[in-house]
Every structure is written in C-alpha cells, then in structure tokens.
Write a structure and sequence with these properties.
This protein has 265 residues and is an alpha/beta fold. It has a domain of 179 residues: 3-Layer(aba) Sandwich (Rossmann fold). The chain contains nine helices and seven strands. A seven-stranded mixed β-sheet has the order 3-2-1-4-5-7-6.
C-alpha cells in the first residue's frame, strides 16, 4: 500500500512555489540530451517524477519516459499539463525507492533532489544499477536553492526550532542510512563527471516567500502540528517586517541546476 505524504497536500501549488520554470527546464533538457548523447530512442526513468517539471521537455519531444511517484496528486498535476497521456509516457503510482522494472531497462535514470530522503540508500542505488543498460547514465541532480531564499529559510527554521523542541517527543524520526553515492558508483566501475547544467536568477518579494511558507509548501513547514503552525507563522511574519523593512522587499539571487553524471561501463 502506498502511503500518503505531504506532497499530496501541496501538489496543486508545487510548481508555483519552486524556482525551476518551464523555460529553464527546457534549457536543462537540452543540456542533458547532449550530455547523454541522446537518440530518439533514448529511454528515461525518473523515480520521484512529481509534477514532471524535470522531464516534461523529454515527454513533449517524444522520448520514452517512465515516471514513478508515491503521490498520486503530484502525478495528477503532471497529467493536467498534457492534452492526453502520450504513448511515450508511462506513469506509475508507487514507492519511487523501489523500481518494478526488469534488468537493463533504461538508458538514463534521473533523480532530482531525491536520494537524500531514501531510508535504504544502498538498496535504491542497487536498483538504479540494476535497471540501467550497459553504457547507461545515472544523473543525480538537484536544484540549488538560491542563497536569498536559503537565508529566508534559515530564519524560519530558527523560529520553528523553538516550537519543534516542544513536540519532538511526539514523533518518531525516520532512520536514514548514510552512503556515499560517488563511492558506490566508483565501486561498480562507473565513470563520473560533475556539471552545472544551468544558472539563472530567481526573484521574489518577502511577501511571496512568506505566502509560500504559510501554505506549507515545503517539508520544513510540517515540522510542527496544525495547532502550532499559525503561531510560528505569526512570529515569523513579525520578524520579516522588522528584518527586511517591508514585505515588498525583493530578494534576488542565483539558482543552479547541478548534476553528478555517472556512466556505466
């Protein structure tokens, strides 16, 4: 049985509260296609496909794409972006840390800011290694949070921490197994390369970022209960007015799409 996650609650506002736009995704796709020497038959798998932001350009260009995600609501958002589900797209509602595919099924496996949340990383990496074709690529990628937004988040985390400590005893923390991804793939004989696919400027007003947080669009906003959360946001809004001078203050900084590319031998 697939368990619900906070992504089910935020699927409808996921894209608008992130900083990867469709135009940037198009440029990143161009970069990836060149990186993997893609042909029209090159097949892509994205565990944790979500709303499809990362792979929508591949889908629209006709490349075979398979996506798997634990959140049906996120997959529904992807479906809404398409007039109909094309034959080159296969969507699966399931735990993305488990890959229900035969050996050597895909030319490219792409994960974006996803591996850190897998509890059994070695098992997941074993699965990626298993489903990759010979000479296939594993692209372990992430969108680097723009520094201005990261600073904004740090301020929110500081306030959350005061309330979180009071509720810590109510939760059981998920155990995450640590493993060095680079070392793992080196041990399997992969070659690696680190690249930055795209850098771009992201701008938001403090009020916009505050509204994103109030809508609980990010995982850190679920660290406290529904009862406590309004108190956190009230205190945080007061801090923002004092610290930034105005909620209309614009925060601009550079985002990056970075990729650790591993190629199978």
């Amino acid at each position: 049985m697939v368990k619900s996650t906070y992504y089910d609650n935020i699927a409808h506002l996921y894209d608008q509260t992130r900083w990867l736009t469709e135009s940037v995704a198009q440029e990143v796709a161009d970069f990836i296609l060149e990186l993997v020497d893609a042909t029209p038959e090159t097949s892509f798998l994205e565990p944790g496909i979500g709303t499809g932001l990362n792979v929508l350009p591949f889908i629209r260009r006709g490349y075979p794409v398979t996506g798997i995600d634990v959140s049906e609501a996120m997959l529904d958002q992807l479906r809404k972006k398409l007039d109909k589900i094309p034959q080159n797209l296969n969507l699966i509602h399931a735990d993305a840390s488990q890959l229900p595919f035969t050996d050597k099924s895909f030319d490219v496996v792409l994960t974006v800011h996803m591996v850190h949340g897998i509890s059994n990383k070695k098992m997941f990496l074993d699965e990626i290694h298993r489903v990759l074709k010979p000479q296939g690529f594993y692209l372990n990628a992430q969108w680097i949070t723009p520094p201005a937004r990261m600073e904004f988040e740090r301020y929110l985390r500081a306030i959350l921490a005061k309330y979180e400590a009071k509720e810590a005893s109510k939760r059981v923390n998920k155990v995450i197994e640590e493993i060095n991804v680079e070392d793992y793939f080196y041990s399997k004989g992969y070659r690696s390369k680190y690249v930055i696919a795209k850098e771009w400027t992201v701008s938001n007003t403090v009020e916009e970022l505050l509204s994103f947080s109030k809508s609980r669009a990010y995982g850190l906003c679920w660290l406290v209960s529904d009862e406590i959360f309004p108190h956190v946001m009230s205190e945080f809004e007061e801090f923002c007015v004092e610290h930034y001078g105005s909620l209309e203050t614009e925060l601009s900084s550079q985002a990056k799409f970075e990729i650790w590319a591993y190629r199978a031998s």
